[in-house]
Amino acid sequence: MSDESIELDFDGTAISISLAGDVDFTSLAKHLTHLIEREFSISITWDEGVEPTEKAIVAKQVVEEIIESFNQVIEEQFEGDAEEEAEEDYDEDDIPF
């Protein structure tokens, strides 16, 4: 993270969010929609280079909220699917007694 941009790396896919003018999170949102298919959550760590500006701090908080919301969707959508699949696999006729 620098005064000019926030750089994110998703397993080799780099996303840069410019802090100049209005901050646009579209590239992050688009990338996350592609990651939904992988069905796993994301953890984020920050590499603080310089003392961030107030705008950078706010943008960082927004990125964290976006990632948190993404992880909630993954958890709700795919953990619910796993429970449904487990229930479908269960058959009362399989009980040995």
Topology of this protein?
Elements: E1 5-10, E2 13-18, H1 26-35, H2 54-89
Antiparallel strand pairs: 1-2
Helix content: 40-55%
Give the strand order of the largest sheet, numbering strands 1, 2, ... along the chain: 1-2
Rg, Cα atoms, Å: 19 Å
Look at the helices and sheets and give the structural class. alpha+beta
User: What's the end-to-end separation, in Å?
Assistant: 62 Å
Strand content: 5-15%
General shape: elongated
Write a concise synopsis of the structure shown:
This protein is an alpha+beta fold. It is built from two helices and two strands, in the order ββαα. Helices cover 47% and strands 12% of the residues.
What does this structure look like?
- The structure is a single chain.
- The protein has 97 residues and is an alpha+beta fold.
- It has one domain (5-94).
- The protein is built from two helices and two strands.
- A two-stranded antiparallel ribbon has the order 1-2.
- The protein is elongated, with a radius of gyration of 19 Å.
- It starts with a strand and ends in an 8-residue tail after the last helix.
